[in-house]
Write a structure and sequence with these properties.
Helices cover about 70% and strands about 0% of the residues. The protein is built from 27 helices and no strands. It starts with 13 loop residues before the first helix and ends in an 8-residue tail after the last helix. It holds the Pfam family PPR_3. Keywords: Repeat. This is Pentatricopeptide repeat-containing protein At1g71060, mitochondrial.
């Protein structure tokens, strides 16, 4: 299809818009997959199939991988483990298999990716055993402690996150100011800003570390994410009292804080103040304003800042164009959104999967589910990775069908995702299982619940409560007891013993 989006930008037919999107998706792209990438995809597809009803059996995993006939290399191991980031149990099974293969080498990267996958499913004891293994092999770095600390914080275990940071000393590593800043950043980004503030105040008063502008900007960002503008301004004043002048990053964080609180006039005021002080705005700041103003349907203002950015000679990159696409979508100007997609393609700055996720979100929000599914199908037929559906895309479409009580279509998309070697996460399992309960498809719900457990994912309490009640309503008390026992086993027991 050679028709340009520019020629049909004023069309009102959803068919023409989808047809236009197909042109954009299938335009040639010079990037290609590496050989190790192809082998990683092959292994991920095998593991995705094995995850269905393997019951957590390592022998089945090993047998399936033995038949893969791939050369094991450090890049391959790292790529596969990254693909299993939502399936810690499978990641560990793959790692154990890879260790026994010719060509395998222990690397810091593969250990760190595995530790993060295990920490995501709260297998922290197993992760710490791996840390000891890394220490013995001379592969341990501060990044390992940072990622474990981050996973503790995201699991709402702030105390353990701080302890993970402090354990560096026990492994022979010295704290530095950058490590302290990283801890503050971790706590702030995990919605533990009050604790981060306490740690900051304690460290500052004890003079154990020297705080800097970066320390303050992290706290500013944390309070901004909490939409606590009072604390944002308190930290901002303290920062200036300590002799630190705001830079572009600082201004960008404050502008973003106002945008998150939907105080767009204040965000524009800070932007103008920034210009008056001779501080040049970055692409990220323009992107923040375009996103914020666009979401408030202040389209003309959003476009004004996009054009201003162009006039100032700043590089127009994918995120900024994505913000503009979103601005048009919020104002329900889908034809203009597709025109921007075409412009991105011509300039070589996209589009990417995120671009289409934005479009899908707004189509579904406008209840244009047929058009959304057509866009998704075009993405699915795209061979170029940057435009193909990601886990986020599949979550959007599965949720769409589940919300429409169309579980059969949700399962079709689910199976397509698994066939591409993409594994579901906790939220996606929860959405599907809850919908199966609503449709009284309890055998299928239990099957997917078991698959979730086999991947080492702990079910959220509200989802298990719904499944349990649905089973009890059907008189299946034995099934409830069996599933409850399996959850308890997963919670208490480490996945596997680790060899030294």
């Amino acid at each position: 299809m050679a028709a340009s989006l520019n020629r049909i930008s004023k069309a009102r037919s959803p068919y023409l818009l989808i047809r236009s999107l197909s042109t954009s998706l299938h335009a040639p792209n010079p990037s290609t997959n590496s050989g190790s990438g192809d082998d990683a995809d092959k292994i991920l597809k095998i593991l995705a199939k094995t995850a269905n009803g393997c019951g957590g059996s390592n022998s089945l995993v090993d047998a399936s991988l033995d038949r893969a006939s791939v050369a094991v290399t450090p890049p391959l191991v790292a790529d596969v483990l990254k693909g299993l980031s939502n399936a810690g149990a499978l990641a560990l099974s793959f790692f154990r298999w890879a260790e026994k293969q010719k060509g395998f080498q222990y690397t810091t990267e593969s250990y760190n990716v595995l530790i993060e996958a295990l920490s995501k499913i709260k297998q922290f004891n197993t992760a710490w055993v791996l840390v000891g293994d890394m220490k013995r092999r001379g592969l341990l770095t501060k990044d390992t402690f940072a990622l474990i600390s981050r996973r503790y914080a995201r699991a709402r275990k702030a105390k353990e996150a701080i302890e993970a940071f402090e354990r560096m000393e026990k492994f022979g590593m010295r704290y530095e100011s950058n490590d302290f800043n990283r801890l503050i950043d971790t706590l702030c980004k995990s919605r533990s800003v009050a604790i981060a503030q306490e740690v900051f105040d304690k460290m500052k008063s004890s003079k154990r570390f020297e705080v800097d502008l970066k320390s303050y900007t992290m706290l500013l960002e944390g309070w901004g994410q909490e939409r606590n503008l009072l604390r944002v301004m308190e930290v901002f004043r303290e920062m200036k009292d300590e002799g630190f002048e705001p830079d572009a990053v600082t201004y960008g964080i404050i502008i973003n804080a106002y945008c998150k609180d939907r105080k767009y006039d204040d965000a524009v005021r800070v932007f103008d103040e920034m210009l008056e002080k001779g501080c040049d705005p970055t692409s990220h700041i323009y992107c923040t304003l375009i996103n914020g103003l666009g979401s408030d349907k202040r389209l003309s203002q959003a476009i004004k800042y996009f054009e201003q950015m162009k006039a100032n000679g700043l590089a127009l990159e994918g995120p900024t164009y994505n913000a503009l696409v979103g601005a048009y979508c919020w104002s329900e100007k889908m034809d203009e959104a597709y025109r921007v997609v075409d412009e991105m393609r011509k300039l070589g700055v996209g589009p990417n999967s995120r671009t289409y996720d934005i479009i899908l979100h707004h189509l579904i929000r406008a209840r244009k589910t047929k058009e959304a599914y057509s866009v998704f199908q075009r993405m699915s037929s795209e061979e170029e990775v940057s435009c193909g559906p990601t886990l986020s895309t599949y979550e959007i479409i599965v949720r769409m069908f589940c919300n429409e009580d169309r579980v059969d279509m949700a399962l079709r998309v689910w199976d397509q995702m698994k066939a591409r070697g993409i594994l579901p996460g906790m939220h996606m399992f929860s959405t599907l299982i809850a919908s199966m309960c609503d449709e009284n498809r309890l055998d299928e719900a239990c099957k997917h619940f078991q698959e979730m457990l086999d991947m080492g994912i702990r079910p959220p309490a509200n989802m298990f409560s719904k499944l349990k009640q649905s089973l009890l309503d059907e008189g299946k008390q034995d099934t409830v007891l069996s599933l409850g026992k399996k959850i308890e086993e997963l919670r208490k027991a480490p996945l596997l013993s680790i060899k030294s």
